[in-house]
Amino acid sequence: MLPGIVGLKVELSNIEGKLKLGQLRKKEDQVGVYNALTQSSNLQDQALAHYMKKINSGTGGT
Amino acid sequence: MYIPSNMKMDDLSTAHDFIDEFGFGVIVSDSLTGTHLPFVLHRDEGDNGVLYSHCAKANPHWKELDNKEVLIIFSGPHSYISPSWYAQSPAVPTWNYAAVHAYGIVSLLDDKQTLDAVEAVVGQYEPGLLIDKNIISDEF
């Protein structure tokens, strides 16, 4: 296997992260979004809700 | 990436946690070539952490990476947001998401270091595979 691959190392000079999770909206709006995502059958919606809950952002405190 | 100050991940550990969870990124170099790879973060190395990965030599992208600055894009969960979900109207649809952009200088690894990088990926996603030699033998 090794002859066919090459390893990479990246020493990081900068990392920037963005959270656009509706966390700046009014609490009632956040609750509505979080509940809709949680109850959705769409797996992407559920994954987003799971992450919002995990980092406690955009859930309206629910 | 455009990040309004009130949407910025507030500390390095939040961004590191994000990479640990959503480590399948796109490495982009000067030529605007992008390669999708799983990355493993060693957060205690260097000032901002060090990422390890490996790619197929058949992919010529690696030939232009050594000692070059790259952008590695990590996408997280994302989804369409209906305005009907808000308590207040009128409102418009939007897309919500989280993302991390990591910048750094690439070093190509020798065979021994490459093996370590491969084992780091397997160790993160299926550690049992490093023990069970029936599935991956030592010859690999």
What does this 3D model show about the protein?
The complex is a heterodimer of chains A (62) and B (140). With 62 residues, chain A is of the alpha+beta class. Chain A has a domain at 20-57. Helix content of chain A is 42%, strand content 26%. The longest helix of chain A has 13 residues, at 27-39. The N and C termini of chain A lie far apart (49 Å). The mean pLDDT of chain A is 95. Chain B has 140 residues and is of the alpha+beta class. Chain B has 2 domains: 9-108, Electron Transport, Fmn-binding Protein, Chain A (Pnp Oxidase, Chain A), CATH 2.30.110; 110-140, no CATH class. In chain B, the strands form 2 sheets. Chain B has a 4-stranded antiparallel beta sheet with strand order 2-1-5-6, with helices on one face. A two-stranded antiparallel sheet of chain B has the order 3-4. The N and C termini of chain B lie far apart (39 Å). The chains are: A alpha+beta (62), B alpha+beta (140). Chain A: InterPro entries: Split_barrel_FMN-bd. Chain A: It comes from Neptunomonas qingdaonensis. Chain A: This is Transcriptional regulator. Chain B: This is Transcriptional regulator. Chain B: It comes from Neptunomonas qingdaonensis.
Question: Gist?
Answer:
Chain B: This is Transcriptional regulator. Chain A is α+β, with helices and mostly antiparallel strands. Chain A contains 2 helices and 1 strand, in the order βαα.
Number of domains of chain B: 2
How is the main sheet of chain A built? none
Tell me the β content of chain B. 25-35%
Structural class of chain B: alpha+beta
**Sheet with the most strands: spatial strand order of chain B:** 2-1-5-6
Number of strands of chain B: 6
Series of secondary-structure elements of chain B, N-terminal to C-terminal:
HEEEEEEH
Q: Please name the two chains that share the biggest interface, counting residues whose Cβ lies under 8 Å from a Cβ on the partner chain.
A: A-B, 43 and 70 residues
Global structural class of chain A:
alpha+beta
